[in-house]
């Protein structure tokens, strides 16, 4: 039996407006949102209403309040927040298996669909990885490593796959920081270069092999 529909409360309306700004990238991850007085003026709501909306979005994982500093965007969507939480509580070997499935298929598709702009973006990330490794900057290395994989995924031109991967990228970056050190940097850089060359040459078999190589290395690091 159908039940009577309910109108949105004022708190829900405010929460949806803020969520919309996050999901359309007007407010990006890492950005501090405007202070309470400014938001109250823009939305024409009370402090209590605004705080309830922010509390709901914080619980959903979109926002994070830092005492004495402000409120920051910590995820680009509710789905992204959920995926991040799941990955954080998932065995790392299982996460690697999911990465392998996604990255292998994306690499294969990229060999068929990549354009020159895709190759340039992948190459740029790889060059930045090498520079970070040469400077022993692990945080920058982890950032560009994840960006490299995101660009390979993007080159598959499968939007759903790209969206899913973008949602897990923050958790992946933390995994890179935990599992990589510069002792094995040369291996990872060489296997990534092999993947780039395979995509450039449209060699599907070689692309899949390159993914297998660096995933197996990461697996060995965890064991």
UniProtKB/TrEMBL annotation:
Database matches in Gene3D superfamilies: GntR ligand-binding domain-like (1.20.120.530), Winged helix-like DNA-binding domain superfamily/Winged helix DNA-binding domain (1.10.10.10)
Superkingdom of the organism of origin: Bacteria
UniProt domain HTH gntR-type: residue ranges: 8-76
InterPro entries: GntR_C, TF_FadR/GntR_C, Tscrpt_reg_HTH_GntR, WH-like_DNA-bd_sf, WH_DNA-bd_sf
Keywords (A to Z) from UniProt: DNA-binding, Transcription, Transcription regulation
Coiled-coil stretches: none
SUPFAM superfamilies linked: GntR ligand-binding domain-like, Winged helix' DNA-binding domain
Protein known as: GntR family transcriptional regulator
CDD domains, A to Z: WHTH_GntR
Organism from which the protein derives: Paenibacillus borealis
């Amino acid at each position: 039996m159908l039940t009577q529909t309910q109108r949105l409360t004022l708190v829900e309306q405010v929460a949806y407006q803020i969520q919309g700004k996050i999901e359309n990238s007007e407010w990006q991850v890492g950005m501090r949102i405007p202070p309470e007085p400014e938001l109250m003026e823009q939305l024409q709501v009370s402090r209590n209403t605004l705080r309830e909306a922010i509390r709901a979005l914080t619980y959903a994982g979109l926002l994070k309040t830092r005492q004495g500093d402000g409120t920051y965007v910590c995820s680009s969507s509710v789905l992204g927040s959920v995926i991040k939480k799941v990955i954080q509580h998932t065995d790392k070997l299982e996460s690697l298996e999911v990465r392998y499935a996604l990255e292998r298929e994306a690499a294969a598709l990229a060999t068929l669909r990549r354009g020159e702009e895709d190759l340039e973006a992948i190459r740029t990330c790889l060059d930045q990885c090498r520079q970070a490794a040469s400077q022993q900057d692990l945080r920058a290395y982890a950032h560009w490593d994840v960006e490299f994989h995101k660009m390979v995924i993007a080159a598959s031109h499968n939007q759903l796959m790209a969206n899913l991967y973008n949602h897990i990228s923050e958790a992946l970056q933390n995994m890179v920081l935990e599992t990589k050190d510069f002792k094995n940097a040369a291996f990872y850089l060489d296997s990534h270069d092999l993947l780039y060359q395979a995509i450039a040459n449209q060699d599907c078999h070689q692309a899949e092999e390159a993914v297998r190589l660096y995933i197996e290395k990461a697996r060995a690091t965890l064991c």
